[in-house]
Amino acid sequence: MGFWYGTELKALELEHRIDLITGVPLHKEKERIRGYNQANHLAKGLSEALKIPLDTEILKRNTFTESQTRRSSRFGRFKNIEGVFTVNDRSKVEGKRIALVDDVLTTGATLEVAGAALLESGCSEIYIITIASAY
Q1: What's the CA gap between 86 and 3, in Å, rounded?
Q2: Distance (Å, rounded) from C-alpha 12 to C-alpha 7?
Q3: pLDDT score of 20 more than 90
Q4: Alpha helix locations (H) across the chain?
């Protein structure tokens, strides 16, 4: 699906505007339970189609959080996800224009908090790419 979406996005010439693609990380325990990270699968396909480097290790989710789908309010979603992401290696994000990929955009809380961690570590621009929106 990520590769197909990437071919659809080629007309936007993102390869000239984005230096790196990464997926929103799952906590290692949640990924072990699920068996995969859906955002990383999408990011991999986008990377292949757009010929933009992929790095799924630059962001880390430090805290195992309750699923955002169980939270109805925007405030509750932000409180649930607040401060859970860190950047593993600042040198990999400094000055970079990074596409942050997730499967579904609902309130934007997860993407906003993950994006803030990248920006605080020196990333120059964030592009948000999702396959679906709840709106």
Answers
A1: 27
A2: 10
A3: yes
A4: 2-9, 28-34, 38-50, 74-81, 109-120
